[in-house]
Design brief:
- This protein has an eight-stranded parallel barrel with strand order 1-2-3-4-5-7-11-12, surrounded by five helices. It has a four-stranded mixed β-sheet with strand order 6-8-10-9.
- α7 packs parallel to α10 and α14 packs parallel to α15.
- β9 (332-333) and β10 form a beta hairpin.
- The protein has helices at residues 14-17, 30-42, 53-67, 78-81, 91-106, 122-128, 135-151, 164-169, 171-174, 188-211, 233-256, 261-269, 280-286, 356-370, 396-414, 462-472, and strands spanning 7-11, 71-75, 110-116, 157-162, 216-222, 226-228, 292-295, 300-303, 332-333, 337-340, 374-378, 419-422, 444-447, 457-460.
- The protein has 16 helices and 14 strands.
- The longest helix is centred in the middle third of the chain and has 24 residues, at 188-211.
- Bound molecules: 6-O-phosphono-beta-D-galactopyranose.
Length: 479
Amino acid sequence: MFPKGFLWGASTSAYQVEGAAYEDGKKASQQDIINKDSFQKYGFATADVASDEYHHYKEDVALMKECGFSSYRFSIAWARIFPDGNGEPNPKGVQYYHNLIHELKAAGIEPIVTMYHYDCPWALVEKYGGWLNRQIVDDFAKYAEFLVKEYGKEVRIWTTINEQSIIVQYWTQKCYIPEELLDGNHNQLRYQINHYMNLCHAIACNLVHTYVPDGIVGAALGYSCIYPLTSRPEDCMAMQNAQALRNDYYTDIYFKGIYNKAADTYLKEHGLAPVIENGDMDLIASGTSDFLALNYYASECAKACPADGKIQIQWSGVNRSGKKGDISGFETHPGFYQMCKNPNLDTTDWDWAIDPTGMEYMLRDLYNRYNKPLMITENGLGAYDTLTEDGKIHDSYRIDYLREHIRAMKRAIDKGVEVISYNPWSAIDLLSTSNGVKKRYGLIYVDRTDDDPKNCARIRKDSFYWYKKVIASNAEDLT
Ligand code: BGP
């Protein structure tokens, strides 16, 4: 059974919903630049308008209230607060989030705030390369301190950095990385960026603990449980290797303050390990997390692979077309593991394996190992939706997906796992990180296309009405 007071809601991120990319003093983030490029190359929408939540936030909060949300997870755009990344705060940007938070609180909705969701201010990229430079740790620290002091009276639940593991894997979508670093010889930088993020995460945890009296804080991690392709011992070992490098490498930092040994050894053997300065590990160990927030969409599968060959990370696992099977290959670490398709699972049109049981597996495994409360801050089905002539969206496929994942979460809770909240992706349709706006996740439809933002009218999908019943019954009624 879901406990009384369980937080139900949904999730978004700033650059994917807000729009108003250059309004009221905001300057570009790296996502404004990356998404302009994706528009040119693939025809995916830019972040200029996105879902225009900046202008629709009152309407959106009213819809969340109607649906019964008791929480809403959103992120703050660093470049709206500090347009130049550092220096003077932008009063209008600061006010926008006060307005949003007040609107939510007045509707009885608890804000769950993410400090950083892929959108480094472009000014810092221009100044020193953004995340490629250790200087960002100082600027992030100032930004995080500003946030907790400014909003800490109203915001109790904080997540620090969104999806470090996914930033490592898909660094060009999530960070601005100059062309000349993409030839495969600079993969160490992925782990260096991650190290800077670990420092930032620890600093942010300490800030919340210092300035937010009843505050709780943790990272939001993109997490897939990993199965072995077969029961051959070699595949099972490869699964353990993949688990170490893709998952434990992050969770061991958050909860134990150490780099996972197997992953660290592998990275050192291949010249990929980050440079660590004196005092870094002490700082990391001091910034303990109160919970782990999980973004779970799909499980993964790994198999053994020969020791000769090249490390393949760049462009692995990307499907841009939205046609099943059109995937650009699989991450390979020769002699360690290779990711592969799980023949037992159906996938979305973008080749993400649909696996509700994986949610239960993940929750039980993480709780067994770390014994800390868990939150689901993302989970959802990216799909093509059709707006019918009479203005409806019949997304039964999304309802099926969410229902089975809620059931899986319930099974984990019934076996003793402490889960605090469920915030599927996404509250409303928004700009996908990899596929424009035609890949939709929302409970609420946003009427726009990749090349035409139209008026971004909001329309409740069938899943909205279904989720409303789920919340009202604390998930007793999932029909
Ligand atoms: C997570 C991100 C989100 C999001 C989601 C779906 O990795 O935290 O920002 O968009 O995945 O991914 P996509 O948009 O690429 O379909």
